[in-house]
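Continuing the batch. This is chain 6 of the set; chains 1 through 5 are on the previous pages. Same settings as before, nothing changed between runs. Recording input and output for traceability.
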Amino acid sequence: MAYNAYSLKEVAGRPEHFVAGHRMCAGCGSPVAVRAVMRALRPEDRAVVCSATSCLEVSTCTYPYTSWNDSFLHTAFENAAASMSGVEAAYNALKKKGRMQENYKFIVFGGDGGTYDIGFQSLSGAMERGTDMVYVCYDNEAYMNTGIQRSSSTPIYADTTTSATGAKSNGKPQFKKDLTKILAAHNIPYVAQTTFIGNFKDIHKKAETAVYTEGPAFLNVLAPCPRGWRYAKSDLMEICKLAVETCVWPLFEVIEGEWVLNYEPKKKLPVREYLKAQGRFKHLFEKDAEHLIERIQDDIDRKWEDLINLCNLS
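Output for chain 6:
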């Protein structure tokens, strides 16, 4: 499917599907991700949005107010994708009977807790069944809504309230789960990894492709959290840029099984530049902790080489 050339001015001028007045924290990546994805909708289309329990849900639907201009469904942590499967099936049935004329797109939002962990079984099932929807994970790498507990998305050695640092602990001892690769293994039409850099072209183009690809699609969006990551609120974009330039969060797509690298840093920055910008890794810069940073760097280098090979760029 062909798309118009990207224009930030044109995209910013589109009707708002996610409006101001929500209660998300200043400097949070979640509302930025949501607005970027929802602006991929064309003017003639409407959406049904579903959200698992999360910061996004509790901050955008405080009765009797809402920040959504589209139909919005709040469901439990574990069944957001299953709920949207039911909505999409009902829509198709009504269309077939001639009782529905409008064009709707189906978009699910979930944090990493509701996606990587609790909601994974329903997500995997919806993808395998071929539900025509987009699942968007805004990945802030912990259960931020309930107190910054670790999830399977939390990076190794990160400090959370359930992986405390101290004389006998260096933070979370496990590496982060590679969910984007796991979703690609479902052999669905479109999978992509993105975040906020430059003029938002990358996230917009991927959101547009995901929304207008027939069948299931998955977007994994790095969406930093100032409370959990402990960075200055004004540094959101800089944190995202460092994640990309250090290859902690590479930008790529998997289109009908073909891996495509979207961005390769001209000069790959060392991971310590990314780590030192966040308070959750502060303990890694104390005495005798250098080997922990080296282990993180080795893992990033290995995964980057694997991605280069998957994209046939080696």
